[in-house]
Amino acid sequence: MRIKKEYSKSTSPSEESIFQSKFILMKHAIFSILLCSLTISGFSQDNVRRTVLKKSYIGLGGGLGAYQDAKFSNVPYSGISGSFAAGTSRESDNYYWSTNFNARYSMLKTSYHIGGGYNINANYNFDYTRKLTENYQIGGKWSLMNVNFTNFSALGNNSTGIIFNSTVSVLGRYTRLLKEDVRVNFELALGLFSMAKEATSFAYSASQKVLEEGIFDFQNDATTSPLSLSYSSFEPIGIFNKIETNISVDYKKRWQFSYQWDLLNYRTVKSYPITFAAHTLSVRFNYISKTKTRLNKESNK
Question: Does 47-297 carry CATH code 3.40.630?
Fold first, then answer.
């Protein structure tokens, strides 16, 4: 019996050792929970890169256009216009990117003489902005191809004018969510520099630059073709000026209503630069509007 008692006393754990064991088990349990939480959190952050809102649209619009070119005619012309637009955009928490094609037809007339004419503007552009804050973004816009073709048959030999340019602009955007399904956007683009070419000047089918430099040649098609870059000019802001503004309202997923005003002026002659300006009201329908989450390769396995 004595031996049994001594054995039991020697092998039974003390209260202190029990407390230490429980403390160690609790510490390991807390550490394991934290480790699992961090692992799950890290896994989700590593695999979910970003959420992107993808849109593709078509749009129709109408408004007023005005045009004046002292080499084309010494009077201003104006008239109503109609427009078509198509494009696509991508928007995430960090950036906004879009590519767009716009075509506008403006009827031209003047009270100074009889007859009528028209201006056709076609523009294909890219723009990209990064978010500075929740509401403000800044970036750039490249109007890869911008063509103005003007015709006024009453002017005879001087009835046709073409201006071609490729312009890089700085772009600012402001967006604000008014309601869950209503967002207001404002954009301002200011041209920094351009590669520009005119295809007519006075009654000649050559640009003003070609005539000024005395290199006009009826046998050289490059001096008369509006799409040839041979005699295009690099023009900075101050000589070639381009401003574009856009105020729009996104309504639900599918609709956008907007007002655009854009101005282009270039090549001052007799104190009047070549000027084209247009006010346009348009409506856009997003036939594709969906949100997509892009994942890393590991999450797709």
Answer: no
